[in-house]
């Protein structure tokens, strides 16, 4: 240890900051500065709250998505296909990524059916190199992506000790690691053009733990952290043209992911309503959207009341997230064969296809 450091530690030498403060102010400076900082923060904070309240009352400006190029991962089924239909209606060119070739072809057909511009790419999001390769292909074949919706997700749906390691790995590969690779692939051009939006479809399960969803909840909590840290990182770097939005829905009906969930008190959400809400959040540059919105008021209580209350509440609300064992609900070999039957559509093949979700995407009522 140097003599200087030793003297500083013994209080014989002023520190690097106190050295610059006048002698008479040395004791007072940090307290005065801290008080000024707090007052400034409160004033600025009140300003932001007033602005947000005003925007909520009069309505937020909705940005025009016409001409935007949007990549929707997991766009071959469920929520992804509903978002794709809405974006196409708003004039976006929609690029769908999915491992499920049949679902992808169906959705491309649907989007084109309503007059939209749509491309489908078979991508396995567990494969980083596949993501980078197809991202490059999209850039060359479709153009610069300015809206990225990380929507694909998987769930294992078993008690932790019954979950094979490869399913835990897959949950993290799809639900969070793929977000890193897609963002690394598309963010540079968004920054270069000062125009972009990254949307993370996480879940309420990223804020609240649920039995049988240990891998799912932890991957979604990571997705929430990913969005917040990335947003702060962009703001710290002064990048104003690239936004991020975090979407956290409660359980959704008829997408195929949590078909059988046993949910009390709070009804499962309608998938079309969730898709509408997501598109609204994108158009109004909302940093986060909890669906339904009242969870925003309830969530802070999690840290205020004793744990047994939280445990009772969650176990009462979701007695069983996966009442039917997921492996029992796998499609039959015959159904799986039909699901991967190729069709002559202009789906661009990036990898060999195969259904990845444990349940096949439901053919629910897709509305625009
Ligand atoms: N369904 C719900 O109750 C619910 C609730 C909250 C959040 N979410 C989240 O919303 C998102 C969409 O969920 P959903 O209900 O539409 O699920 P879904 O199972 O219907 O759709 C997921 C899509 O991701 C695709 N996919 C899975 N693994 C893939 C891989 N390795 N590579 C490429 N594509 C892959 C599937 O083929 C499927 O098309 C997910 O991130 C999910 O976690 C769903």
UniProtKB/TrEMBL annotation:
It comes from the Eukaryota. One of its GO terms (molecular function) is oxidoreductase activity, acting on the CH-OH group of donors, NAD or NADP as acceptor. One of its GO terms (cellular component) is lipid droplet. InterPro entries: NAD(P)-bd_dom_sf (IPR036291), SDR_fam (IPR002347). The chain crosses the membrane at residues 31-50. Residues 333-368 are annotated as: Disordered. Keywords: Membrane, NAD, Oxidoreductase, Transmembrane, Transmembrane helix. Gene3D superfamilies: NAD(P)-binding Rossmann-like Domain. Residues 333-342 have a biased composition (Low complexity). Belongs to the short-chain dehydrogenases/reductases (SDR) family. This is Uncharacterized protein.
